[in-house]
Amino acid sequence: MKVNSKQTGLLFYFLPFITFQILPSGYFHIYFKHKPSTMKRRKFIQNSAMLALTVGVFGKIKWDGEKYVGTDPTTTDILGPFYRPGAPFKTNLVQPGTKGETLYFSGTVIGKDGKSPVNGALVEIWHCNEDGVYDNTSDNYVYRAAAKTSAKGKYEFKTIMPVPYAAGQTTIRPAHIHLRISANGVQDLVTQIYFKGDKYIDGDSSSSDPKSLNRILETSKNAKNEKVVKFDVYLREEYVLETSAFKKIVGLYEMSDKSMCEFYRDGDQLFAKINGQIMEAMDYKGDNSFEGGLAYVKAKFELLSGGGAKVKVTIKEDKPIELTGKKLLKY
Q1: Which of 41, 86, 150, 272 could form an S-S bond across to 154 if both were Cys, CB 3.0 to 4.6 Å?
Q2: How far apart are the C-alpha atoms of 222 and 103, rounded to whole Å?
Q3: Cα–Cα distance between 19 and 17 in angstroms, integer?
Q4: Neighbouring-strand partners of residue 233
Q5: Is the Cβ–Cβ distance between 220 and 254 less than 8 Å?
């Protein structure tokens, strides 16, 4: 079934082309057009080198008397349309009978000082199966899991290698794993990891962004010849809109294209649900403004006299899209 702009409203702008495929298993696959990268490979390499220099100059790297410690906070990435809250706590995601390649995925979550491990951080991960399909509906939360970090900030999952999949008619997303990490006293993080050698990285607007460079990871093999990948996460200072203002902003908005957008708070972040589908998680940037991963989506709110509120949403495309909305109920 193809869904056109009249049926999806604002969802059309987040996902300019969307197709739902109902599978016999009860899962459904959403194909969407991901904004194609306009960055040439040479330009990407040049920007990546500049980014590495920036990390060295402006990062949280300090001399402790013996060695340099710390790094820049881990960069954000888009949430995507496949996030499901409430994933079960488990560390083994491998499904019986899978043909996927086993992957051990582990790392350490580091606090805002750039060196101290975070105990009890919630790490949520999700990715597609060996056929490029996400489990968006079942009670089993296939290839979705959550875990708390140890006293040393460690986390580990046993799963399978995700695979590239079609994102619309012209783009293929490289293999990737989504993460959402949250803990007290630090900013919640939504991000993704990619894998070196994936031929689709340069053609994807998220993985080819220079800010994603340090999240394109090398895999190795353990003694059993199974793939291993390590991803250390550096969280940053918490920056959150005060609760009283948050309460005035959240709610259901009618947008200028007649679609409905619900903004709601989850942890430190403002989530956007478009026509019932969770689409983006945004961090507070000051002045009643929020920004999603890689600054792809921005939302700026204005509190009106008499208890109303309105929003301006900007979506980063080759030609930026701007929409406005008004909250249906007063605060």
Answers
A1: 150
A2: 10
A3: 7
A4: 109
A5: no
Apex CA 189: angle with CA 186 and CA 192, to 5°?
150
Instruction: Give the pLDDT confidence score for residue 64 in this predicted structure.
Output: 55
In this prediction, residue 313 carries a pLDDT of 97
Residue 10's pLDDT band (boundaries 50, 70, 90)? very low
pLDDT band at 35 (very low <50, low <70, confident <90, very high): very low
CA distances (Å), origin 47, targets 93, 195, 208:
36, 19, 10
Give mean pLDDT, residues 241-260.
Answer: 95
Q: Please state, in angstroms and rounded to a whole number, the distance separating the CA atoms of residues 178 and 126.
A: 5
pTM of the model: 0.81
Specify the residue for token string 């199974």. Answer: 226
184 contacts: CB under 8 Å, gap ≥ 6? none
Burial of 321 (0-12, 13-18, 19+ CB in 10 A): middle
Residue 41 has pLDDT above 90, yes or no: no
Query: 201: which DSSP letter?
Result: G
* CB within 8 Å of 195: residues ≥ 6 apart: 161, 174, 175, 176, 216, 217, 219, 229
List the domains of the chain with CATH numbers.
Answer: 33-60+70-234 (2.60.130.10), 243-327 (2.40.128.20)
Distance from the Cα of residue 210 to its chain's centroid: 16
* Distance (Å, whole) CA 140 – CA 27: 11
From 268, 288, 289, 269, select the one nearest 279 (Cα to Cα): 269
Q: What whole-number distance in Å separates Cα of residue 35 and Cα of residue 15? A: 9
Average pLDDT of the chain is 84
Instruction: Determine the pLDDT at residue 142.
Output: 98
Q: What is the DSSP string of 64-78?
A: -SSSEE--PPPPP--
CA atoms within 13 A on the CB side of 10: 27
Q: Is residue 212 classed as helix, strand or coil in its secondary structure?
A: helix
Give the three-state DSSP class for 50: helix
58 vs 165, higher pLDDT = 165
